[in-house]
């Protein structure tokens, strides 16, 4: 059921919007990714469900092998991400910088960046001046945009009792130095904030990874137990056919 919902959401997202900005930032269309993952999940769970109901060894073995491959791929991704953390950080930096460039191209991407900057109290990739990479916020003299040398409102420091958000609060912030700008906006980049968050929540991430791994391992174990039981029943039936006798007597 979950896989079917994922496929439906992916198809809806693909039909309703083409997500060009997401393609430029992530190199993979999230809608297509959702559809592919949903289809693969459906096929794997279908093999496990029908295989157990029909006691089909072929389907159960397919289910067990697929779960094992998925588990090993997740394990390899985690190990490689830990060993090659510098390359992983570089990839994250590339994604964030591309997202900054395409900030105005997609409303969903814009909302995602704004949420991330407000949640992590950061601005840009490395610093708030990264917003000069965006054509609308670019700080060059020949930029005709009204947002020239500005940063998004999500970079701004807001008072706790502020009822109305000033969306123009980031106007001209890139023209200020770090000390001056820090009185009005977050000057630290989101990359370091994200890395620090990961380091401070390793136990939480490990718990999530363990929570994903345990059902897979249980599924592999139970499918192998059921396969062995089916094989034992087949051997018993063959034995009975050969000896033409009731095995209980």
Determine Rg (CA atoms, Å).
27 Å
CATH A-level architecture of the domain at 87-239: Orthogonal Bundle
Biggest pleated-sheet summary: none
Give the class-level CATH name of the domain at 87-239: Mainly Alpha
Mean pLDDT: 85
Strand proportion = under 5%
Q: Give a count of the beta strands, DSSP E runs of length 2 or more.
A: 0
Report the CATH superfamily of the domain at 87-239.
Tetraspanin
Structural class: mainly alpha
Give the CA-based shape.
elongated
Distance between the termini: 47 Å
Unreliable residue stretches: none
Question: Within the CATH hierarchy, at the fold level, what is the topology of the domain at 87-239?
Answer: Cd81 Antigen, Extracellular Domain, Chain: A
Helical segment tally? 9
Helix content: 55-70%
Listing every helix as H and every strand as E from the N terminus to the C terminus, the arrangement reads: HHHHHHHHH
Description:
- One of its GO terms (cellular component) is pore complex.
- InterPro entries: Tetraspanin/Peripherin (IPR018499), Tetraspanin_animals (IPR000301), Tetraspanin_EC2_sf (IPR008952).
- It is a multi-pass membrane protein.
- The chain has about 250 residues and is mostly helical.
- It has a domain at about 85-240: Tetraspanin (Cd81 Antigen, Extracellular Domain, Chain: A).
- Helix content is about 65%, strand content about 0%.
- It contains 9 helices and no strands.
């Amino acid at each position: 059921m979950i896989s079917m919902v994922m496929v439906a959401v992916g198809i809806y997202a693909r039909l309703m919007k083409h997500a060009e900005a997401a393609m430029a930032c992530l190199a993979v269309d999230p809608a297509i990714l959702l559809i592919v993952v949903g289809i693969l999940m459906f096929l794997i769970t279908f093999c496990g469900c029908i295989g157990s109901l029909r006691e089909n060894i072929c389907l159960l073995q397919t289910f067990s092998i697929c779960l094992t491959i998925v588990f090993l791929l997740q394990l390899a991704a985690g190990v490689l991400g830990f060993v090659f953390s510098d390359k992983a950080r570089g990839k994250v930096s590339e994604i964030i910088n591309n997202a900054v460039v395409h900030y105005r191209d997609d409303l969903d991407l814009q909302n995602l960046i704004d949420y991330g900057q407000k949640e992590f109290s950061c601005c840009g990739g490395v610093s708030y001046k990264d917003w000069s990479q965006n054509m609308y916020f670019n700080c060059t003299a020949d930029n005709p945009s009204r947002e020239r040398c500005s940063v998004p409102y999500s970079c701004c420091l807001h008072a706790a009792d502020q009822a109305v958000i000033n969306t123009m609060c980031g106007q001209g912030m890139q023209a200020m130095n770090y000390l001056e700008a820090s009185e009005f906006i977050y000057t630290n980049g989101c990359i370091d904030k994200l890395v620090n968050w990961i380091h401070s929540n390793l136990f939480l991430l490990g718990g999530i990874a363990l929570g994903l791994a345990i059902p897979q391992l249980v599924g592999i174990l139970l499918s192998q137990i059921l396969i062995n039981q089916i094989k034992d029943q087949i051997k018993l039936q063959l034995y009975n056919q050969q000896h033409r006798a009731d095995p209980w007597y």
